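User: Predict the complex.
Assistant: Input components as received:
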Amino acid sequence: MPKQITGRAVGEVGRGLGQLMNQGLQIEIIYAFVIIICSLMIYFGTRELYKLSGHKGIKYFRLGFLFFAFAYFFRSFIKVVLLYFNKEEIRAIAPFLFGSVTLFVFIYFSVMAIFYLLYSVIWKKLDKKLDKIWIFHLIALIISFILVSSGNPIVGYLLLNILLFGCIIFMVYKAYHQSKKKGFNLYVIYGLLVIFWILNILDILVPSFVQGFQLLIYMASIVVFLMIVYKVIKKTGSN
Amino acid sequence: MVKRSKLEIIKDILEIIKENNAGIRPTPLLRKSNLSSKRYNEYFKDLIEKGFVREIRGKRGERMISLTERGFKFLDKYQVIVGFIDEFEL
């Protein structure tokens, strides 16, 4: 009898874990889907404005969100694969594909998404004759390469994020003070976007770090993206 | 005098052409656009490349410039484009 109870209990725990895993997967898929749809809505919603104007700021703004869509796709791809299959099994099947390559692509797209958004705001202040976006691509590639090839990408990435975060907050603060518009400004939204993006990356690299707040971070990230989508739709007339 | 942005100059040139439905000759367009001939030529080349204007022949075979459908569309969307750039400080 006790053996039967133990067996049933173990079975229930297993089912419970399975349900939890399924729930985690569902949340992950819904979250990634919403963010990717928001990013693509911004990208395609501004296509006509860019095609007509050829404005560089609009170009970099759109590319920022296209890269967000790619980054979130790879982010959820890594997470779903790790959640669905056993980590060790994946490493045994295709260690290079599911390890280094996916992480490299994910880091490159995520860093470039932030760089594109920053560049869309600062490009006017730079020398107009030189398109310096390739420097940002180079930096993103170097960062991705160093982190993937180093033994411990987590520590490196955390240090890099602290540095990147400091630079971005400084630039956002300066831009906010120079801006004519005050109040709940665009730069505040961009600041929030960067904060939640870094938390999203932490969620991939150090899952235990944000375990208790994961759902909160997901919801806050969706709210930030929806705010930008709303602003875009309002201004473009939802074309 | 406030310096006009590139988009503003394009809009001004297209509006001058629009006012002349049947098309406008290059010389009055250059004069009304308030640009040096060098800058006017640069803008005109750009407008042709973007498909906003086209060259046509007038009744007496003279060279005229008229708006294309894309040019009309740009004028329609100009306020939206400027509003968007201003909103996102691009």
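The CA atoms of residues 134 and 140 of chain A lie 10 Å apart.
Let me know if you want any component modeled separately.
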